[in-house]
Amino acid sequence: MAETKVLIAEDEVVLAMGIEKSLKSFGYQVVGKVTRGENAIMMAIDKKPDIILMDIHLEGRIDGIEAAKEIHSKLDIPIIFLTAYSDEETFRRAIDADPFGYLGKPFRPDDIRTTIETAINRYRADKAEKALELSEKKYELLFNTMANGFALFECITGDDGKILDLRILDLNPACEKITGLKKDEVYGKTLLEIFPDYPREWIEKGGNIALEGGRYNDETFLRPLNKYLSYNIFSPEHGKVATTFSDITDYIYMKLREKETLLQIERNLEQLAILNDEIRNPLQVISGYTQMDNCEHSELILRQVKAIDSLVNLIDQRWLESEKIRDFLSKHYDYNFFQKNGK
């Protein structure tokens, strides 16, 4: 473990040397000794000690209390005040500087170690508490503003270990919006209490993950909600299972409409191919009989046959272009997606 770095700000040189000797004997690292408040600030910024022993009455333009306030405005370092005496005004000013401890002169070497360790432990506890508070605030913000639904359940088992149900422990606002459930109304209830027809196999799947760990994700149609969901299931701790999910109902229906459109294009192309044959076959018969008969209207009839044949060729060209469109659509649309969702 790294040595605790200590800065000594004491204008009594002999006392400062004695403190340094005691600190080193206890395994602390002394990063510097200063006698003036201005120097204490500069040394703290430069060396960044883990803790500062600061005499209240220092030489220089500013005393130890003002130096401590200035250091706290720039750095997060715990400070212990050293003092032989203090009037009421000085004591009040010292409290306002928010020190992590006091050492009254004269003091014994053991007093220094005890005060330093107490201050450092308090400082670390405060840091941990602030970090936890910040983490909880970030989690709460994420929990309440995330677009995906979130639900936390407790696995309920029988005496034989069989998974019976899942009890609701928490829902976020997005979950309430997607499912229509209200956290205050369903907290502590089970899925089967709320949805008697809830698929048993899904409860068992969630329960198995709660008890054995692992993850699972998929897309499915949840009949109790009449919605398509994309979901992810995991266990945050033994005996509990959580799920994050999003409502993909609109997306599924859009894909279904796209498939219907593609199928209609297929049918139109088939009908177009049949129509071409139905026109071209009798047209060839008319052309053949007209050439054999060689009547006075033969030339006019053949010109009309040629014009109709040009139209059929144009339809053939459009059919080939439609084939390219169909191939493009087939390439970029996944039929397996619809089959997986039972469509």
The N- to C-terminal Cα distance equals 63 Å
By CATH, the architecture of the largest domain is named: 3-Layer(aba) Sandwich
**In terms of per-residue confidence, which ranges show pLDDT below 50 for 5 or more consecutive residues?**
335-343
Q: What oligomeric state is this?
A: single chain
Proportion of strand residues:
15-25%
- Biggest sheet overview: 5 strands, parallel
How are helices and strands ordered from N to C? EHEHEHEHEHEEHHHHEEEHHH
CATH fold call of the largest domain: Rossmann fold
Question: What structural class results from the helix and strand content?
Answer: alpha/beta
Number of domain units = 3
Q: What strand line-up does the widest sheet have?
A: 2-1-3-4-5
Distinctive features:
Rossmann fold; five-stranded parallel sheet; Beta-Lactamase; elongated; 10 strands; disordered C terminus; 343 residues; five-stranded antiparallel sheet
What does it look like?
By secondary structure, the chain is of the alpha/beta class. The chain folds into 3 domains: 5-142, Response regulator (Rossmann fold, 3-Layer(aba) Sandwich); 149-247, Beta-Lactamase, CATH 3.30.450; 253-340. It has 12 helices and 10 strands. The protein has helices spanning 13-25, 37-47, 64-74, 88-96, 109-145, 173-179, 183-186, 191-194, 200-212, 249-293, 298-332, 335-340; strands at 5-9, 29-34, 51-55, 79-83, 101-104, 149-157, 163-171, 215-222, 227-234, 240-247. Strands 2-1-3-4-5 form a 5-stranded parallel β-sheet, sandwiched between helices. Strands 7-6-10-9-8 form a 5-stranded antiparallel β-sheet. α3 (64-74) links the parallel β3 (51-55) and β4 (79-83). α2 packs parallel to α3 (64-74) and α10 runs antiparallel to α11. The radius of gyration is 42 Å and the shape is elongated. The protein starts with a strand and ends with a helix. The model is unreliable at 335-343 (pLDDT under 50).
